[in-house]
Design brief:
- The chain has 143 residues and is mainly alpha-helical.
- It has one domain.
- Helix content is 75%, strand content 0%.
- The chain has five helices and no strands.
- The two termini are 16 Å apart.
Length: 143
């Protein structure tokens, strides 16, 4: 192990915010370039998302992806330093979650010509809750 001083709480928070901001900007830019289609309306008259909501969803998906990449890096480094099987299990789980988040991101769905349709409120809420949980997880992992 290295003898690096622990990162302060403020430093951990700054790192989490920096990762989230970078991911949001990248997600927004990719969504803007791909311009996913809104898709058909959902059941019971749920309207398809507006282009602005699609951009917001893309930004949140970018935040999720950036936080997951950072978490994979943290726990991969932990595994390489300690060879702890628990850290290896976390890396496998986080990579699977990263792939799931990537596949369901609006800019990936749009890149393949599909619209998110009437399920967008649920996908949006899921991404938003995931971003908050991943930010807390990364903050705690950096302390």
């Amino acid at each position: 192990m290295t003898d690096e001083p622990p990162v302060s709480r403020l430093g951990s928070l700054a790192r989490v915010l920096l990762v989230a901001l970078g991911g949001g900007i990248i997600g927004l830019a990719i969504t803007f370039l791909v311009r996913p289609m809104p898709g058909p309306p959902g059941p019971h008259g749920v309207a398809a998302p507006t282009p602005h909501l699609l951009l917001l969803s893309g930004a949140i998906a970018g935040i999720d992806l950036a936080l997951l990449v950072a978490l994979v890096a943290v726990y991969l480094r932990t595994y390489l330093d300690t060879r702890a099987r628990f850290a290896a299990g976390l890396v496998v789980f986080l990579v699977a979650l990263l792939l799931q988040t990537f596949v369901t991101a609006p800019f990936i769905v749009g890149a393949f010509g599909f619209g998110v349709g009437g399920l967008w409120p649920f996908l949006f809420a899921s991404s938003l809750f995931g971003a908050v949980a991943l930010a807390v997880f990364l903050f705690l992992s950096l302390e």
